[in-house]
Amino acid sequence: MRIVDLSNAFSPEEFAKDPHTGTHLDAPAYLLKRERSINDFGLESFFLEAVILDLSHAKPGEAVDDEDLEAAEEAAGLALREGEMAIVYTGDVEPHAYLSENAAQYLEFKRVRMVGIDAPSIDSLTARELPAHVTLLRSGVLVLEGLRNLGEVDVPRFRLAAFPLKVNAPISPVRALAILE
Fold first, then answer.
1. pLDDT at 73 over 80
2. What domains does the chain contain, in order, with CATH numbers?
3. Which of 131, 67, 59 is nearest to 96 (CA)?
C-alpha cells in the first residue's frame, strides 16, 4: 500500500482570513440556507472510492463541460459509479479550468457523493452565482477544493480519505489522502 498526500498546506492566519484557503471541503450550508453543515455528514462520507478524470489538457481559464468529463472517463477506460468521488485533474494552472453548470449536472446525474478539483474552486473565480457549487451542493454533493499532487496518483480508481474537522460549519480544512493498493 502507498499513500499520497493530496493536501495543500496553509497557515491558521490564512484560514482565519479566508476559509477557502488550502485544501478544504464545502458542505451544502456553504451556499444554501437550512442545509447540512460538515458535522451533519457521517464519517463514511469522507472515505470513498475515487476516480481521477484527467482534464489537464483543458485550456487555462476555460470551462470543462459534460462532454469533456465523458471523454476523460472513456480515456481512463472506466465509468463513474454511483456513490464514488469524481476528482477533476486540471494540472493546477492559473487561471484554473473549472466546471461548467452542465458538467456539474452531469456529475449530479452520475450520483457522485463528492467532487474534487486541484484548483481553488470548481467555479470560475469571476463567477458571482457559483453555478457548479449550487448544482452539486443542492443535491447534497460535497465539494473538495485545493487538491495537490494528483500527478502522483498512478491509478484511475483508488480510496480517498478526506476527513474535515468536527465542526458545525459549512467549510472545513481537510487532510486528503489517496490510498493506493
1. yes
2. 2-180 (3.50.30.50)
3. 59
Is the Cβ–Cβ distance between 132 and 101 less than 8 Å? Answer: yes
Residue 93: CB atoms within 10 A of its CB come to 14
Give the largest CA-CA distance in the chain: 43
Give the pairing type, strands 157-164 and 171-180: antiparallel
Task: Using alpha carbons, list the distances in angstroms from residue 28 to 15, 43, 83, 171.
Answer: 19, 16, 17, 9
Q: How far apart are CA 27 and CA 171, in angstroms?
A: 6
Burial tier of 159 (Cβ tally within 10 Å: 0-12, 13-18, 19+): middle
The runs of H, that is alpha helices, within the chain are 12-17, 66-76, 101-109, 131-138
- pLDDT at position 55: 94
Provide the strand spans (E) within 23-166: 24-26, 47-54, 63-64, 85-89, 98-99, 114-117, 142-145, 157-164
85-144, pLDDT tens digit by residue? 999 999 877 888 999 999 999 999 999 999 999 999 999 988 889 999 999 999 999 999
pTM to 2 decimals? Answer: 0.94
